[in-house]
Hints:
By secondary structure, this protein is of the alpha/beta class. The protein folds into two domains: 3-185, Rossmann fold; 192-396, 3-Layer(aba) Sandwich (Rossmann fold). It is built from 17 helices and 17 strands. It has helices at 3-6, 49-53, 55-63, 88-98, 111-119, 135-138, 142-149, 172-175, 184-198, 213-224, 236-243, 258-270, 312-322, 344-355, 366-375, 388-395, 401-404, and strands at residues 29-33, 40-41, 44-45, 67-71, 103-105, 125-128, 154-157, 180-182, 204-208, 229-232, 274-276, 281-284, 294-295, 306-310, 327-331, 360-363, 383-384. The strands form four sheets. A six-stranded parallel sheet has the order 5-6-4-1-7-8, with helices on both faces. The chain has a six-stranded parallel sheet with strand order 11-10-9-15-16-17, with helices on both faces. The protein has a three-stranded antiparallel sheet with strand order 13-12-14. α13 packs parallel to α14 (344-355). The chain is elongated. 50% of the residues are buried. It binds adenosine-5'-diphosphate and magnesium ion. Residues 210-211, 215, 234-235, 252, 307-308, 331-333, 335-336, 338, 365-368, 388 line the site of adenosine-5'-diphosphate.
Amino acid sequence: MNTKEALKNYPGGNYISTLDDMEPVEGKRVFVRVDFNTPIKDGVVTDNTRIKAALPTLEFLLNQGARVICASHLGRPKGMVKEELSLEPVAQELGKLLGKDTVFSHEHYGMAVKNETRELRKGHVLVIENLRFDPGEEKNSGDFAGRLAHLADLYVNDAFGTCHRAHASVDALARLFEKRFCGRLLEKEIAALGTIMHNPERPMTAVLGGAKVSDKIKVVETLSQKCSKIFIGGAMAYTFLRALKVETGKSMIENDMVGTCAKMLERAEKNKCKIYLPVDHLLADSFSEPGEAIVSDNAHIPSEKMAFDIGPKTIELYTRELTGSRTVFWNGPMGVFEKPPYDHGTMAVAKAIAELDAPIKICGGGDSVAALNKSGLADQFTHISTGGGASLEMLEGKPMPGIEALKIYK
Length: 410
Ligand code: ADP
Ligand code: MG
């Protein structure tokens, strides 16, 4: 996929500049908002996936001799300094990946760090401290943004996972720069998810699962207007089954969503989108003591049992009915995949999509991506979204503050 072209599939995407629109940046100070929200244990980064994901943008700038100022949040320090959430270990890990030393600043702004940006050697990186140590970040404070703006000449946003939040470093700050750009990772995300929303190759299908139907109902709604089939699994399937008066035993249900699910099923039918629900399940006794995993006879769940995963007939049905899809979007595990054997359904769906001969196969969502990585089939997908909440909000069709802020209407 040509991402620059595909970006236009997103509303107003043609008003967003990418790194390809940038004039040479040798010696320029470029502020890059990245997503370095990585797990850290005892001062060491334990999973550097997100840091690696930022490398295409960073290397593009560094190879031209830019002075790069990297900024990110990490965890939820709630506007206070929390040593264990310092970005210093991340700066070290980034240095290793880039093969050159990075400079780390405990400050966000002020004379010292401003001087450091000027003294930074061309082609080198300065990482500033966790943005959320300052209360201004989450408040989208213009004052905080104004101070950060003094650090750089140009602005790049490459933090897709934060774009759905109006925080200072992605919203107020971006708007202070006349020269603001979308980084490589963000460009890829907007292109992939924008294509699903606005210009998919049809037939398009979606596999949706996960814990809470209330989290996902808007996505079911928007996708039902675009997909020919939607396959539902995970705990949210049971609220839908309840809406059809199927016995759901002790399964996780959101009672206040049963009516909404019933209406959703009606609307989908009007939209000519077929919604598939599980026809059998893998059952458990309880969360704390699942007991023996047994398969239900049919869609009904015995009163003393809870459904923890889709069953073998459902796997077969979903796998068969996915055939012929040209675009597939997957969000949400089919079961309690953290507790084998209740990972069966999720792994089977990962395999079914991986083996499909479809040009576009996208997976989004924190837990779904974790499950996909565990399956070892991630490379069979065309795009894996790095943003959990952000990818869902994008598919709900909501304007995202971090993306809106990049648009420049000429
Ligand atoms: P994602 O992060 O991919 O968007 P969610 O956060 O919505 O996915 O859902 C993932 C969670 O849903 C997992 O922790 C999983 O254990 C839970 N889950 C899936 N199926 C069930 C089920 N049948 N009963 C209870 N929890 C479930
Ligand atoms: Mg999740």
